[in-house]
Amino acid sequence: MKGPTSAVGSAFGSIATSVLGGLVGGFLAAALVIGFTEILKAILAVVSRQQTWVLVLVPLIGLALSVLVLYGFGLSSETENFERPSWAGAWRSFAPRVSRADLTGDMVGFAGEEELFPWRLAPIRMLAMIATVGLGAAMGTEAPAAYLGVATGVALGDRWWRPLLRPAAVGGGAAGVAALMGIPLLGTAYILELGRRHHAPLNAERVTAALAGGFVGWLLHVALRVDLLRLVVPREPPHSFHQAIITALLIGALSGTITAISGAAIYRAKTFMVHPMIRFMLGGLALGAAAVILAKIADPSAAVGPGSGAIRWVESTPASALTILAVDILRAVATTSSAAAGGCGGLFVPFLAIGDLAGRVFAPSLQVPSDLAGAAGAAGGISGGYHLPVTALAMVLGQGGSRFAMLTCCATVVVASFVGKFVALLVGHSYIEKRPHQLET
Fold first, then answer.
1. Whole-angstrom Cα distance, residue 338 to residue 63?
2. What is the pTM (predicted TM-score) of this model?
3. What phi and psi, each to the nearest 5 degrees, are found at residue 75?
4. Alpha carbon of 201 to those of 20, 258, 411: distances in Å?
5. CA 64/CA 341 separation, integer angstroms
6. Is the C-alpha dihedral spanning 77, 142, 251, 397 positive or negative?
7. What distance in Å separates the CA atoms of residue 313 and residue 105, rounded to the nearest whole number?
8. Each residue of 317-341: pLDDT tens digit?
9. What's the rounded Cα separation, in Å, for the pair 199 and 114?
10. Would you place residue 86 in the very low, low, confident or very high pLDDT band (cuts 50, 70, 90)?
C-alpha cells in the first residue's frame, strides 16, 4: 500500500510529465503549425489576387485534388494490399467507413486515448489541407492547426518516450491553435472542450498539459510576430445597457441559428454514405453557385477563403442589411458545401466570419458600433455553431476591447449557445462522441 509520501511523489511526477510533455510537444507543434499556415496563407494570397473566374474555379480544383489525394492515393485498411510493405501502407491507410477529410472527428474520437491516434496520416492530410484551404475553399486553418499539433505530440511520444504521448498530444493541439490565434487560453479551452465530447477526463494532468501548450504556442506567436488571423476587437462599447441586451439577444440568436444549421448540415453530409465523387460533384456545384452569386452581389474576394475577404468587403463597402444577410447565408452555404464535397479544413474560422456578418446585419438598425456587432456575432458563431461556448468566452476575453463591449459579447455567447443547442435538437444533430470509424456503422 502506498503511503502519503509515495502518493504525493506520484502526483508530482505526473504533473511534471504533463508540463514537460505540454512544453516540448507544444513547441514542436507550434513551430510546425506556424510554418505550415504561412505556406497556406501565401498560396491563398496568390489565389485571391486572380480574376473572378479563377476565384470561382480554383477552389473547385482544390476540392477535387483533396478528394483525389484522400480517396485516390489514400487506402482503406479493409482493401489494403498486404503484399505492399507495411511501412508504406501505414502512412495512407484509413479506417473503414471513416470520413477521411474529418480532422475534428479524429481529434474528438481519440481524445483521452491519444495513443491510438493515427498520426501517420498527417502527411497525406497535409496535402489535402493545402489543396482545400490554400486554393481558396471556404474552410479554415484552426482544425489543421489543432490536428497537426495533436499528431506531432503523439508522434513524439510514440517514437521517443511513451509517458510523454498524451500530454504532448494535448499540449501540441493547444499550442497549434494558440499559435494561430495569438490567444493562449483559447488554444487551451479549444482542445479541452473538444475532448469533452468524447468524455476525455478533465484532470490535473490534462489541464496542465493544455495550459503549457497554449502558453508555448502564444509565446512563439509573439516572438515570431506572426500574423495568421485577424480578430475584430470591439473597441467601442454599446451606448446603453438596453442596447447591450438587445444586441446580445438578436445577434446571438441569428449567429447561433445560421451556424448551428450549417454545423448540422456538415455533420450529416460527412456521415452520409455516398461515393466520394458524387459527394464532390454535389458539393462542388453548390459551392460554385454560391461563389458566382457572392461575386455578383458583393465582391469576388468575398467568395474565396475562410471568410476574411467577406469581412473586408463589409467593413469597406456600405451595404443594406438584406445584402449583408444574403452574403452571410451564402458564406454558410459555401462552407457547408466545401466540407460536404470532401474539403479538408476547419469550421472555426469560417464560423467566425459567418457570425461576424450575422452581427453586422443588425448594426445599422440598432445603431450598434460595427466592430462590436462583428465581434459579438463572431463569438456567437463559435458558441452556437461549433458548440464551444467556453472557447468562445476565452476568445472574447483574450482579444480585449472595451469592458462593456466584452461583457456584451459574453452575453451574446450565452444566448447563441442556448439557441445553437435548441436548433441542433430540432434538426437531430448530435455531438460526436465516438471514434470516426464508428459513426457510419
1. 7
2. 0.90
3. -120, 160
4. 19, 31, 28
5. 8
6. positive
7. 32
8. 888 899 999 999 999 999 999 999 9
9. 13
10. low
- The residue type of 199 is H
CA neighbor of 355 nearest in space, from 333, 332, 336: 332
Q: Please name which of 257, 230, 245 lies closest in space to residue 371, comparing C-alpha atoms.
A: 230
Rounded CA-CA distance 232/251 in Å is 15
Please state, in angstroms and rounded to a whole number, the distance separating the CA atoms of residues 92 and 177.
Answer: 25
Q: Is the pLDDT of residue 438 over 60?
A: no
Phi-psi region of 199 (alpha: psi -120 to 50; beta: other; left: phi over 0): left
Q: pLDDT digits over 170-221, tens only?
A: 999 999 999 999 999 999 999 999 998 888 888 899 999 999 999 999 999 9
Q: How far is CA 27 from the centre of its chain?
A: 20
The residues with which 346 forms a beta bridge, in sequence order, are 140
Domains 13-223 and 241-438 belong to one CATH topology: yes
In total, the chain counts a number of residues equal to 441
Q: Measured between alpha carbons, how far is 77 from 80 in angstroms, rounded to an integer?
A: 5
Q: Which helix (H) or strand (E) holds 291?
A: helix 276-297
Pairing outcome for strands 75-76 and 93-94: parallel
Task: Report the alpha-carbon distance of residue 62 to residue 424 in Å, rounded.
Answer: 30
Q: What is the mean pLDDT of residues 70-93?
A: 69
3-class DSSP assignment, residue 11 = helix
pLDDT at 429 exceeding the cut of 90: no
User: C-alpha angle with apex 31: 29 to 32, nearest 5 degrees?
Assistant: 65
Whether domain 13-223 has CATH 3.40.30.10: the reply is no
Domain ranges of the chain: 13-223, 241-438
Residue appearing with cell numbers 452555404:
333
Q: What is the pLDDT of residues 128-162, one digit of tens each?
A: 999 999 999 999 898 999 999 999 999 998 887 88
The pLDDT of residue 99 is 83
Q: For the residues of 319-346, what is the DSSP string, one character each?
A: --HHHHHHHHHHHHHHHHHHHHTT--SB
Closest CA to 150 of 200, 114, 202: 114
pLDDT category at 437 given cuts 50, 70, 90 is very low
Number of helices (H), then strands (E), belonging to the chain: the values are: 17, 2
Domain 241-438 in CATH 1.10.3080.10: yes
